[in-house]
Amino acid sequence: MNWLGSLFLLLLLLPLPAIAQTKEQLEKERKKLIQEIEKTKKFLDSTVKTKQTTLKDLKAISAQVDNRKKLITTISGEISASDRKITENNKRIDSLTTNLSKLNGQYLEMQRYTYLRELSNDKWSYLLSSGNLNIFLLRWRYMAQFEAFNNRKKQEITQLKQQIDNNNAEITKVKQEKGVLLEQEKKEATTLEKEKLAKDKMLKEISSKESTLKAELQKKKTEREKLNSAIERIINEQLRLAREKAAASSSTKNVKKEEKLDEASIKLSAEFSQNKNKLPWPVSSGFVSSSFGVQAHPTIKNVTIENNGIDIAAKGPKDVKVVFQGEVVGVTRVPGYNHMVIVRHGNYYSVYSNLDEVTVRQGNTLTTQQSIGKVSADDSGNSELHFELWKDKTKLNPESWLR
Question: Which residues pair with 340 in a beta bridge?
């Protein structure tokens, strides 16, 4: 391959992969955010019909506003990626056009030489003037190589023209996509302003009930502590049983942490850890009304809430399904959280609480997405599942594990 062919290949390969990958990631994020917005929209549409505003409704509109902001940012990123792609394509076209001009010049010189040679019958004179057969063959081979070189240059010119056409078509396509994204960004910005006004209205309405909210908050804190104690009690019991089992099969008194699990549990733990960001949601629809960790209370100033898992709110009763295969190690009732089910996946645990109905028992072996019960709707038609993930005694953020 000559220098021009190498340059041609280099120009094709250099900038595109990084840009394409970024654009693909942004598009995937945009689609995911649109799905999240649709979830909260359905919830809020039902609220409008009931004409009742609750704290869950405020959480829903807050999630809607946050996701809408992220969506606008993502769309802006896609537009910037489109601009970069157009710029890179233009640079590539300029470079290809320069090389095409040089190549055309070389090709015209060869064509001119070929024409003069054929006009003067130079080819045969040159061949027949050979002193012997070897020289004749060498000259014949030279003529053949020259023609092959001539044809190769012609082919390279055709390829360069095709690549320029392809890049021009790509620019046209990207500009069209950019136009659609700009229109969507404008539409989302208008919708965001309306949602902000709706959020402010809800916030004002709910803030008038601050004393009631404080009492509910204190009650919920107490209930949360009881739930946490119940979970820790069951997990501690599982760890104790694992230690005893490991000690019974080991001749040493000091049992290492990794030796506490049998081979099947170790394998299950590895499979579970490989499914981070891939686990199915425990309910088919709904949105995260309360995230993991410490966060500010949506209405009461200077008050924070600590959540050991996430809350998934929806309209109407919902079937609850286990997120991964495992064994039921706990079924109990916790004040404020109704029924709770804990499923062990090696040294990982998934916790499902606020269930109105439970269809499994302790010791049951479950497959992924097997139903374990149902979370029912309250008087307002809202249902909310509290979901947690633990690794031994460490609490994990479920949103980092769900797809």
Answer: 332, 353
